[in-house]
Amino acid sequence: MAIIEGWLPPTQAHYDLILRVWQFAFPPLASIQWLVRWYPMGKTSVASRLNLPGRVAWMTMEAPGFLTLLYLMSTMPERHGIDDLPWQNRVLGGLFVIHYSYRAIAFPLLQPSMAPIHALVWAAALCFQLLNATCLGSWLSAYGPVTADAWAAQSPLPQFALGMLLFYVGLAGNFFHDEELREIRRRAAAKQRKQQSTNGQGKVANGGGTVAAKHYYEIPQAGLFRYMLYPHYFCEWVEWLGFVMAAGWTCAPAWAFLVNEVVSMLPRAVNGKRWYVERFGADKVGKKWAIIPGVL
């Protein structure tokens, strides 16, 4: 059953159109961040009537990606007379679901606190997810290689295996550095609880539960944070470079995804370094790079 006839799942012509939009229209829009420092989420969140609760906004803007991909992979093969997708298609789909199950569900639930997210950021992220999942899901379901011979030409087994390894290295690095940022807030919350207990205030914030260390920041130091301020972004790029390698160097949707990740996240990292310098001073930030050691 189609959600939007001809578009979701997309016909070949509509897939080609959506992919061109994803490849050529989205990067210039994301590049506007170089000109505008206003980015109302996370540590740069602002007070606004258009703010959405952090956890709810995050889940609802991230989850549609992997849900769309699963929908396409479960419906499109039959529509195109494909009895059984090769194992490579299912593995790559699984990698996508693994990443976004963490990002969409586990990540917001693990966060000690989350700042509100502006509705415009939510809408942009939702568009990112739907365009990306539609392109990748359609390629994996029908419009990419769908036979063993096609995969032998697209991505030989050693290349596929190396790409998977690189993906998991990036995924582990992404989680490790996310966890370091969470640990900073946990330590701050524990310190607040101890101070409140010492002062005899009785109940702590959040209805007597845990204290959320809101608006508390410090410069993280563990792992690649010693050298850069946004290693969790860098590791996510490593993940999707591994995905491109596994999918094959000619996989246009995978390349479009990686390019749009870089174009979207690079200005945030550069502006984020400026934020750290303004908040803590250039001496405290030291010689840390924003995201690419030796480059930027």
From TrEMBL:
Record PROSITE patterns: S5A_REDUCTASE (PS50244)
InterPro entries in UniProt: 3-oxo-5-alpha-steroid_4-DH, 3-oxo-5_a-steroid_4-DH_C, SRD5A/TECR
Domain 3-oxo-5-alpha-steroid 4-dehydrogenase C-terminal: 118-191, 215-296
Locations listed in the record: Membrane
Keywords: Membrane, Transmembrane, Transmembrane helix
Coarse class of the protein's main subcellular location: membrane
Any one Pfam family match given in the protein's UniProt record, by short name: Steroid_dh
Record keyword Disulfide bond present: no
Transmembrane segments: 117-140, 160-177, 237-258
Membrane topology term: Multi-pass membrane protein
Superkingdom of origin organism: Eukaryota
Family that this chain belongs to: Belongs to the steroid 5-alpha reductase family.
Protein's name in the database: 3-oxo-5-alpha-steroid 4-dehydrogenase C-terminal domain-containing protein
